[in-house]
Amino acid sequence: MTDQAEQLRRKLQDSHAVIPQAKTLAIVSGKGGVGKSNIAINFSLLLAKRSKKVLLIDLDIGMGNIDILLGTNAKYSISHLFEQKVTFFDMIETGPNCLDFIAGGSGLNEIFQLNQQKLTFFIQQLEQAVKTYDYIIFDMGAGVTRDTIEFMKAVDECILVTTPEPTSITDAYSMIKHVLMERETAFHVIVNRTRNAKQGIEVSNRLIGVVKRFLNQSIHPLGSVPDDEAVVNAVIAQEPFVLHQHNSRAAKALESIAKQYLNEPVEPTNRSGFIRRLKRIFTER
């Protein structure tokens, strides 16, 4: 970790270097219990498998569990950054496929309720991280909370995880509405725990239609993941399902989703807007 931090410092000291910036993603859900964190971990692992440098940050305040799902015992959590000023590069753990991650904290309230000094330190750490990774993925808390909405307004893109349940779809639309009414944001949708691919398409089309009709905005379907016992078995084994049973229906479906996502048109590498937007949100709170 010390070597990694030193390499970053040398990069930042070279004012003439053109440093690509990470694409920032928030993975969210309108309600709990839809498998959001499981999708976040396995999706991140599949990006890392394709030689992308990925940092997964658990911002599900009070309910963080990515280290448990990865079968690890993290030394630090995101709460250590705010309470003890531990840096990102000291907190980062490395999991399978060289996936870097920061575990969630249970001793925090909403981030946006913290004092300015702690928020400034948080942004400083993010400014360094975006110059180091290809993707920074935030696993946000479920439901419409202030932290979740504010981060969704700042990141480059959002991936919303829903299920075919009517309440899940309704809550997903509510979350999209909260964000799009304040800022035009790129939304992708993954439908989890479907009976079959046809049901996934139907749910996606229903959500796309409602958003287009009432918000006059477009959202982008990424695909669906079937309800699969292999996922339950992987959770019990504390191993991501794309590794535990890589030939399972769920793993193959998420492989297709990751491939589709990476094959989408590439945006310009300068994505400094994330930090700028985050600073503005913090100062306006």
Task: Characterize the structure shown.
It is a single chain. The protein is of the alpha/beta class. It has a single domain, classed as Rossmann fold (3-Layer(aba) Sandwich), CATH 3.40.50.300. It is about 50% helix and about 15% strand. The chain is built from 13 helices and 8 strands. It has an 8-stranded mixed β-sheet with strand order 3-4-2-5-1-6-7-8, sandwiched between helices.
Which overall shape is indicated by the principal axes computed on the Cα atoms? globular
Global Rg: 18 Å
CATH T-level topology: Rossmann fold
Main beta-sheet annotation: 8 strands, mixed
What would you call the structural class?
Answer: alpha/beta
CATH homology superfamily name? P-loop containing nucleotide triphosphate hydrolases
- Series of H and E elements: HEHEHHHEEHEHEHEHEHHHH
Kindly report the average pLDDT value: 88
Strand elements, count: 8
Helix content: 40-55%
Distance between the termini: 34 Å
Low-confidence stretches: none
Please count the helical segments.
13
**Top-tier CATH class:** Alpha Beta
The domain tally reads 1
List the helices and strands and how they pair.
Blueprint: H1 2-13, E1 23-28, H2 36-49, E2 54-59, H3 66-69, H4 78-84, H5 88-91, E3 93-94, E4 100-102, H6 116-129, E5 135-140, H7 146-154, E6 157-162, H8 166-180, E7 186-194, H9 197-215, E8 220-226, H10 229-237, H11 241-244, H12 249-262, H13 273-284
Parallel strand pairs: 1-5, 1-6, 2-4, 2-5, 6-7, 7-8
Antiparallel strand pairs: 3-4
